[in-house]
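Try it yourself: sequence plus (S)-3-Hydroxyhexanoyl-CoA, in.
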Amino acid sequence: MSVQLTTEGRIAIVTIDNPPVNALGQEVRAGLLDAAGQLDQMPEIAAVIVKCAGRSFVAGADIREFGKPPQPPHLPDVLLAIENARAPWIAAIHGTALGGGLELALACRFRIADPRARLGLPEVTLGLIPGAGGTVRLPRLVAAEDALEMIVTGKPVNATRAQAMGLIDALAEGDLSEFAKSFAQNLPDDPGPVLGRAPKTPGPEFEPRAEALIRRARGQNSPRAAVDALRAALSLPADQALARERAKFLALRDDPQSKALSHVFFAERQAGRLDRLKGVDAPELSDVGVVGGGTMGAGIAAACLLRGFTVTLLEQTHEAAKAARDRVEGILADSLTRGVLTPRSHAATLARFATATEARALARADLVIEAVFEDMGVKREVFARLDAACKSDAVLASNTSYLDINEIARAVADPARVVGLHFFSPAHVMKLLEIVVPDQVGDRALAMGAALAKRLGKIAVFAGVCDGFIANRIMSAYRAECERMLEAGALPWEIDAAMVEFGFPMGLFRMQDLAGLDIAWAMRKRRAAEGRQPADYVRIPDLLCEAGRLGQKTGRGWYLHQDGKALPDPEVTALIEAESARKGITRTRFSADQIMNRILTTIQAEGQAIVDEGIAARASDIDVVMINAFGFPRWSGGPMHLHDG
Ligand code: 3H9
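Structure, out:
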C-alpha cells in the first residue's frame, strides 16, 4: 500500500510511501482519493497532515507513466477532492516537492516545510507545463512575477525563499512530523481553498519578463505554453483557467519535445551506471588532490571545493602555485558575488584549500586528478611520482582529453587504480564528466569516479579508450565535416547561423573563436608530425592561425571581433575562396537545411561507430554527451534520439 491513513486523536496522517521519490503513480493517486473520501466520513477529524516516507516529499507525476494511456483517477480530480475536503489538509514537506508534488501541496489548505526542503514546478524541463492546477493555484499564493519565474524557468526555490514568497506558511523547527502535529493542533484561521482566492495582480515588469523568457527558450515549446497558461490564470475565473491549463498540458504530453525530454531525463541517469559496479560500494572520498593549476586544474579544484572536499593543488614552482591559487580564489570570489557562497561558507571553503610544490603533500588524498599539459611523457612522469607519493589505495585519475590512458596507467605499479576523468571547461560550471575506462582499471577506481560525479552534481558518462573518447571524437568528426563544407562553398557564419537556428546556443566557428584557435592548431601540428593527417585534410584553419588570427583574444579569428561583436570578415571569405580555387573545387551555396543535414549525419554516423565499437555503452549516452558538452538542443532529445525517433 503506497498510501496509509492513520489517526492520532483529532488529527489524521496520510503517509505516501512510494520509493524512490514518492511519484504520483496510479496507486498513489487512488490511495489519496480513497483517503480523502474516508476522511470526509470521519467528523471527529479536525485536520489532516499529508507527508511522505523516505528521503523526499513527492517528486511529481510518475514520468514512467508518460506515453501510456492515462489511468484514473486523474491528479486534478484527486487534488480538487483534497482542496474541498471537510477537514483542512496540511502538506508537511521534506526533501523536494516538485511538479505534481508541489501541486498536491498547493491544493492543501496549509504548507509547512523542513528548512532544507526545495519546492519547484520543473515541468517545462520535461517539455510540459504543470497539469494539475499549478499555474492556477501558485499565483493565488505568490506574486505573479514569482509564479512566472518558477513556472517558466522550472527552477526550484529553497524553503526560506518559499516562505518569503508566501508559498509556505511555516518552517519546521526540529522534527517535521512533530512540528506538523503541533501546527495541526494550533491551526491558524482557515484562509479557505486556494482556488477561491483572487490571483495576484501582475506588476509592470511581468509582461517584459514573460517575453524575455519566451525568447530565451527559442525552439522549445513549453515555456510559451507556460506563459499562456499563467496569463489565463491571472485573467480568467479559476475553473476556466484550470480547463485551459489541462488542455495545454495534454497537448504538450503528446508533443515530440516532451517525449524527447523524458528520454534525456532517463538517459542522463542511465549513462552513469555500469553493470560491473552493481553492488560495489562508493569508496571513501573527502580529500582530493589536483595536479596542475592551469584553467582546467583550477576549475576542477574549485568544483571540488564548492562541494565540500578538502583540496590540495600541486604545481611545479612557487610562482605557478601562487598563480593557481589566484585562479581558484577568483572562482570562489565569483561564487561569493553570485550568492552561491555566503561570506561564512566562503571563508570555510578557502580554509579547505592548500597549494603545494612537493608530491608528498598529496599523501593523504583519496583521489588525485592530474590536469597537466597534454603530453604523454609529462603525464607518465607525473603518474610515476604520484605512485610513489600517494597512499596505496588512492585512485589516480587523468583529465587527458585525448591521450591513451592505457599507456598512462602503465606508468604506475598497479594500473587498477588509474582511471580517466575528463572534465569540460570551465570545470566548475560544465555538467558533463566522462569517466574513461582503461583496460586494467579496477572497480574501486571506477566507483570513485562515479562517486565524485554524484558529489559534484555532474552527469557522468562512461567511455572506453579511443582518440577523443566520446565527446571530442564526435566534435572532431563534425568539425572536419564543417571544414569540408567551407571548401565546398559554405562560409563560417552561414554554418554558425544554421546551427543556431537548429537550437545550438552558438555555432562551431564562433565557439572556436571564443576558446582560441591555437590549442587545436598545436594538436593538428602534432598529428601531422606523427603522420596522422587524413587525405582530405582541410588547411583553412591552419592558414587562419598562420595569419595570426587566433580567435577573439587576437581580435580576429573566423570572425572580425569589434566592439564586442563578431562580424563576418571579407578577408576570411577571400582566404577560403582562394583555398577552394587552389584545390580546384567549384563552390556551391548551401542552404541551412543542407548544412544541418550534413552535420547531423556526421554526428549520427560517428555516434553509431562509437556505440558499435563499445566505446559508449548505448546510443542514448551519445545524446547525453552532445547535449551536455556542446549544447545540442536538449528538447530534440539528442542526435541519436532524433535519428531513431
Ligand atoms: C509532473 O509532475 C506533471 C504534473 O504537473 C501534472 C500531472 C497531471 N517519476 O534523479 P535521481 C526516479 S512532471 C518517476 O537519480 P536524485 C529516477 O528515474 C514531473 N521516476 O535522484 C531514479 O530512478 P532509478 C515533475 C522518477 O536524488 C530515481 O527516481 N517532476 C521521478 O539525484 C532517483 O532519481 C520532476 O521533473 C519521477 N517524477 O534526484 C522531478 N523522479 O534509480 C524529476 C525521479 O530507477 N526528478 N525518478 O534510475 C528529479 O528532479 C530528481 O529525480 C529528484 C531526485 C530531485 C527528485
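One thing you can check immediately is this: Residues 463 and 469 are 6 Å apart (CA to CA).
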